[in-house]
């Protein structure tokens, strides 16, 4: 895809002697939402960490907005607008809600910090009510709001959401997916990495299914759901 915002080719990565990613190709266009699906251990989180420069690539290339970032430092990756909201939220539990949000603008978005803070509070009114509260005392759903809000403070051009619905109640999951759809409607490109297959396919323009460190299938949600074998073997629906 020549006009891709993110273009990954032949990506290999892993931990120590273990190779997890085995030649991943993936494109995301500006403003597109793509779901990356697969079971535990498929390599989804490793892919996120490698693209975000938290884990070094062993082979292949990663281009963002036409620039090669394969060997870039993670600060440079963030500064370019590729923002990763990791699995497990990873907020700073001993800092306040406001302090967590302000830290989201450390590498990118400082000039518009006040404007972006208001935007986050408009999206998550509960965070406005809890600015002075210690983040570790928030509920699980509120902590996920804080993690996403902190990511938005960095003015992302591509937002990677790694298992955002993990551990949330069904009602909060519905709210979360509605929020993701609204962010996408505002023009934000999103890579949604999820095990909640049905709801991911409802909002994603395209979806890719990973297995054993490789992408086995890709297409629209309708195309993936139309295959009985694919549904039963890979999607669990």
In short:
The chain is α/β, with parallel strands linked by helices and 237 residues long.
* Mean pLDDT figure: 89
The CATH class of the domain at 1-81 and 158-164 and 194-237, by name, is: Alpha Beta
The counted number of beta strands is: 10
The SS-based structural class is alpha/beta
Globally, the shape reads globular
Q: How many individual helices?
A: 10
Distance between the termini: 30 Å
Domain ABC transporter: 6-237
Pfam families: ABC_tran
GO molecular function, one term: ATP binding
Family: Belongs to the ABC transporter superfamily.
Keywords:
37% helix; 237 residues; Rossmann fold; six-stranded mixed β-sheet; alpha/beta; 10 strands; 10 helices
Task: Please describe what this structure looks like.
This protein is an alpha/beta fold and 237 residues long. The chain has a domain at 1-81 and 158-164 and 194-237: P-loop containing nucleotide triphosphate hydrolases (Rossmann fold, 3-Layer(aba) Sandwich), CATH 3.40.50.300. 37% of the residues lie in helices and 26% in strands. It is built from ten helices and ten strands. It has helices at residues 44-51, 74-79, 97-103, 113-123, 125-129, 140-152, 170-185, 197-203, 221-226, 228-235, and strands at 6-15, 18-28, 33-37, 59-64, 67-68, 82-85, 158-162, 189-194, 206-211, 214-219. Strands 6-7-8-3-9-10 form a six-stranded mixed sheet, with helices on both faces. It has a four-stranded antiparallel sheet with strand order 2-1-4-5, covered by helices on one side. The two termini are 30 Å apart. The mean pLDDT is 89. It holds the Pfam family ABC_tran. One of its GO terms (molecular function) is ATP binding. Residues 6-237 form the ABC transporter domain. Belongs to the ABC transporter superfamily. This is ABC transporter ATP-binding protein.
């Amino acid at each position: 895809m020549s006009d891709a915002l993110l273009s990954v080719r032949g990506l290999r990565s892993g931990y120590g002697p273990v190779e997890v990613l085995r030649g991943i190709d993936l494109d995301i266009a500006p403003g597109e939402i793509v779901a990356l699906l697969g079971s535990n251990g498929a390599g989804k989180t490793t892919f996120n960490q490698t693209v975000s420069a938290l884990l070094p690539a062993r082979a292949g290339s990663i281009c963002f907005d036409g620039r090669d970032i394969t060997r870039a430092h993670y600060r440079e990756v963030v500064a370019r607008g590729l923002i990763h909201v990791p699995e497990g939220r990873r907020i700073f539990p001993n800092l306040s809600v406001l302090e967590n949000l302000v830290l989201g603008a450390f590498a990118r978005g400082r000039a518009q910090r006040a404007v972006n803070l208001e935007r986050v509070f408009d999206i998550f009114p509960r965070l406005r009510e809890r600015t002075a509260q210690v983040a570790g005392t928030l509920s699980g759903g509120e902590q996920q709001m804080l993690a996403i809000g902190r990511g938005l403070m960095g003015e992302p051009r591509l937002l990677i959401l790694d298992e955002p619905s993990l551990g949330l109640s069904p009602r909060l999951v519905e709210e979360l997916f509605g929020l993701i759809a609204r962010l996408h409607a505002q023009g934000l490109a999103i890579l949604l990495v999820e095990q909640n297959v049905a709801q991911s396919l409802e909002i994603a323009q395209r979806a890719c299914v990973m297995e054993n460190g490789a992408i086995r299938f890709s297409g629209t949600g309708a195309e993936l759901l139309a295959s009985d074998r694919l549904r039963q073997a890979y999607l669990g629906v």
